[in-house]
UniProtKB/TrEMBL annotation:
SUPFAM superfamilies: MTH938-like (SSF64076). This is Uncharacterized protein. The keyword Iron-sulfur does not apply. The keyword Phosphoprotein does not apply.
Length: 128
């Protein structure tokens, strides 16, 4: 596991480029990314067993919460094929964390706005 940056009070990294299969943030290039206050790393679906269906799992957002995210943006891919498990949204609600579920381009746009205002986290899927 490679973690780029980390730290209390740090801004979440800005996404400087997004295209099919490629995201640039925090000076690094990713296929899929976990973004959180102070850092970013590759979002490897194999770590939690994530698949398009049933979708983003509660375990996928745990790291974002542990690193201080108070708002989370979940990207469903460019075509919206990636789902989000209801349990994931329930976990975020129980923890008092606002969640936004959007297609990739809109998700990145919102995340870049939110990261300037509050501790933000995102899971960004750069394909389907």
């Amino acid at each position: 596991m490679v973690i780029v940056g980390a730290g209390d009070g740090a801004l979440s990294p800005e996404v400087t480029h997004i295209s099919w299969g490629r995201l640039e943030a925090g000076g690094r290039v990713f296929k899929d990314a976990r973004l959180y206050p102070g850092g970013a790393r590759e979002w490897d679906w194999n770590e939690t067993g994530t698949r398009h269906e049933p979708g983003i799992r509660p375990a996928d957002v745990e790291e974002l919460l542990a690193r201080g995210a108070r708002v989370v943006v979940l990207s469903r891919g460019f075509y919206g094929r990636l789902r989000v498990m209801p349990e994931t949204l329930e976990l975020l609600a129980r923890r008092g964390v606002r969640a936004h579920v959007l297609r990739t381009e809109e998700a990145v746009r919102l995340y870049n706005e939110l990261r300037r205002k509050e501790p933000a986290g995102a899971l960004v899927h750069t394909t389907c």
